[in-house]
């Protein structure tokens, strides 16, 4: 969250303000729900929390009550939850108080852009202004064309406008299929997110402004690729980059990360011009070797490894697909569980998406986790943004054959996921009837689970957690009190609890509980992909 906020601030003060306002609204709604005895948990409740503020807030709370009725406030530590919410709300209010006075006329970055646009070469030629965020694109358009009467300035940041029409108006020479309609004029300045960064001919212009910088240098190259194309009438193309403010750069390290990655691109595949900094060392020999040595595969190294796709971007892609191609969206949404595919990547391994949900609670998605395994089957990463970036591809890319032992590797992931689900389920099942000694041993077992990678020990810890979370006999209470007084931890505690588990035949307790039919979340594989 910290990095996301810094990135939004690096993009524009408006994007940052909107994000803070949204977070504040969500926290305030959560607080009000708590006051009315509601725990707004679950997928449906989360969607309601983030709904735009278009009506009465009590209507939102009523909707949350209906969506969250199955969650009992008594199962949570409401006092601690309320305390943490109040702390976060105060912090968000303080942040908002600090940034709200930064109006457009005091926004140095925006005023610099305005100044550039009123001077050569931007004043006299067609210009593309790229930003990563829709909020920033909207902000720029509202301030560069406040009355909406400047026909030669346009913005596009999602599927709400006809992309082909906007592209045709900006670059009619490069897109001869498009004929200007009556009353239409050519676009001189076009503000866009990366919806225009790939596969479009915009070479009527030769100027690009990167109002913010993407984490992935390939995205920057793709932006320049919209105007630096075969058929361009321009001998030279120019790029203007807004670099992060010094304080933001200290926290993000964005410029340095990009600089390092860009130099790797120069050294590996070559580029014929600087991308971010005129001091970059070019490698023309490597550039010309692309045509001889599968350069596209070399480039994919930087696309895969350097690409991070946060959930906001991923959700925007899905919303855009739903608007522009609802039939394809429905087809994807109705795909069966367990689907598999393979594609080329220099990041070898397997990506697996797991879910554990309750069969009789269709409205609750349960636990979900993405995994990236290396070629040895070891978990390399569970970072959602990184894995989503690796999954992103073009619709035209053909699937490859699955590698040998693929199913075995995927099933091993399922086993690990099932253990994690059991552990998380044990942590979730808070009960007021637990004694202080039970809480102590369960806390120590949780620490042991998190610090060991031994699969057999993890299985045993899961069993012990389930057993010692049940109502226990007076004799067992005395035994656990003794363990707590002795402050046993780690292996010593683990060994003592195993003895008690065996001596008191606690396995029979668990078996009887299962026979009583208590519902447990069922782990499944939603989908998987081999990286070959």
TrEMBL record:
Q: Which CDD domains match?
A: SF2_C_SNF
SUPFAM superfamilies attached to this UniProt entry:
P-loop containing nucleoside triphosphate hydrolases
Pfam families the UniProt entry points to = Helicase_C
Q: Which InterPro entries match?
A: Helicase_C-like (IPR001650), P-loop_NTPase (IPR027417), SNF2/RAD54-like_C (IPR049730)
Gene Ontology molecular function terms on file? helicase activity; hydrolase activity
Q: Which UniProt keywords apply?
A: ATP-binding, Helicase, Hydrolase, Nucleotide-binding
Q: Supply the name of the protein.
A: Helicase conserved C-terminal domain protein
Q: Which PANTHER family match?
A: DNA ANNEALING HELICASE AND ENDONUCLEASE ZRANB3 FAMILY MEMBER, SWI_SNF-RELATED MATRIX-ASSOCIATED ACTIN-DEPENDENT REGULATOR OF CHROMATIN SUBFAMILY A-LIKE PROTEIN 1
Indicate the segments forming the Helicase C-terminal domain, all copies: 112-273
Domain of life (superkingdom)? Bacteria
Instruction: Give the originating organism.
Output: Microcystis aeruginosa PCC 9717
